[in-house]
């Protein structure tokens, strides 16, 4: 059995103008399904997992003004099964509590001293009928 991977991504920095849009597609082109479309200012925007090992990022800038831009990081993780969710990365400046990624299991998160948790402090692996098991939320950020 070959190992298939999916992509997990996060915007570490995201500061664009309201008229500038970043679109993330679940596949090799903009004809693929849209995973996310964001603009403006965000902190630690997390993307849903892709269904395969390719995503497409499309940045559309309108106008003559500029902003800081964005810094996108991604990680290839093993594709999971109907009974197992994908591995979960630790949040930057924080830690993950729990290493069991089976259905019904919960993974908790906490931040290092001096950082505040933004997002859920826990996510649960849930069964999805006729599909791969998925987390019911995304990894929070520590700011």
UniProtKB/TrEMBL annotation:
Keyword entries, A-Z: Disulfide bond, Repeat, Signal, Sushi
Q: Which residues form the Sushi domain?
A: 83-143
> CDD domains attached here?
CCP, CUB
Domain CUB: from-to ranges:
1-77
Q: Which SUPFAM superfamilies match?
A: Complement control module/SCR domain (SSF57535), Spermadhesin, CUB domain (SSF49854)
Q: Where is the signal peptide?
A: 1-18
PANTHER family named among the record's database cross-references: PROTEIN CBR-CLEC-78 (PTHR45656)
Could you identify this protein by its name?
Answer: CUB and sushi domain-containing protein 3
User: What is the native source organism of this protein?
Assistant: Ilyodon furcidens
């Amino acid at each position: 059995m070959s190992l298939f991977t999916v992509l997990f991504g996060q915007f570490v920095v995201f500061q664009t103008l309201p008229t500038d849009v970043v679109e993330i597609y679940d596949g090799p082109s903009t004809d693929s399904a849209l995973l996310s479309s964001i603009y403006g200012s965000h902190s630690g925007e997390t993307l849903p997992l892709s269904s395969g090992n390719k995503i497409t990022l499309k940045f559309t800038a309108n106008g003559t003004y500029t902003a800081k831009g964005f810094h996108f990081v991604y990680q290839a993780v093993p594709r999971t099964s109907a009974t197992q969710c994908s591995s979960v990365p630790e949040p930057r400046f924080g830690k993950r509590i729990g290493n069991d990624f089976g259905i019904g299991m919960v993974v908790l998160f906490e931040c290092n001293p001096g950082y505040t948790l933004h997002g859920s402090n826990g996510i649960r692996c849930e069964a999805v009928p006729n599909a791969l098991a998925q987390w019911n939320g995304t990894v929070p950020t520590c700011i």
